[in-house]
Design brief:
31% of the residues lie in helices and 19% in strands. The chain has 165 residues and is an alpha/beta fold. The strands form three sheets. It has a four-stranded parallel β-sheet, with helices on both faces. Strands 3-4 form a two-stranded antiparallel sheet. The two termini are 21 Å apart. The structure holds iron/sulfur cluster.
Length: 165
């Protein structure tokens, strides 16, 4: 039987694509369980947007991912470089990947300015979280794709997926 597809942050699948050149791999049992239920589609929006690895850490300043997509907030490095265009381009390409593979759900890394689905850092570079979504998570949810994070895998496995995107 064909398994449903699941878009997954590449860093959660062990790919060393984070800003610091590291990954944040899921535990082996989590990975095994997900692979039994889904065909996993790895994606790193920041890499798709053309950013190098490693790269300076970035945060959304003046709003959340939706605000960045609307052009009323920007994604900046601590040095003040505006990387909004790369984040938005990467989010669009991540959405295209999801649509091409028929993903109606995504499992994305919590708290990332791209992938965070509940909280993001507040733009002060002081390790302070605020409610809100990253740029890619916002764009995916805007298009009907349910976004979960790595703390919500049990809920993902128990959920009824959206029927269509
Ligand atoms: Fe992981 Fe997403 Fe950051 Fe890429 S953009 S390193 S997938 S959290």
């Amino acid at each position: 039987m064909t398994k449903p597809t699941l878009l997954v942050s590449a860093c959660l699948l062990g790919q060393p694509v984070r800003y610091d050149g590291q990954s944040k791999p899921l535990s082996s049992p989590q990975w095994t369980t997900l692979r039994q239920r889904f065909d996993l589609v790895p994606v790193c929006p920041e890499c798709l947007g053309g950013l190098p690895t490693p790269r300076p850490a970035a945060e959304i300043v003046g709003g959340n991912g939706n605000d960045a997509l609307a052009g009323i907030a920007c994604v900046q490095t601590a040095e003040g470089d505006d990387v909004s265009a790369a984040f938005i381009s990467g989010a669009e390409l991540a959405l295209n990947t999801a649509l091409q593979h028929g993903c109606v759900q995504a499992l994305l890394k919590a708290n990332s300015p791209s992938c965070g689905n509940r909280q993001i850092y507040d733009g002060s570079f002081s390790s302070t979280l605020r409610d809100g979504q990253g740029v890619a998570a916002s764009l995916l949810e805007r298009h009907g794709i349910a976004v979960w994070n790595e703390e919500e895998i049990d809920r993902l496995l128990d959920s009824e997926p959206p029927q269509t995107v």
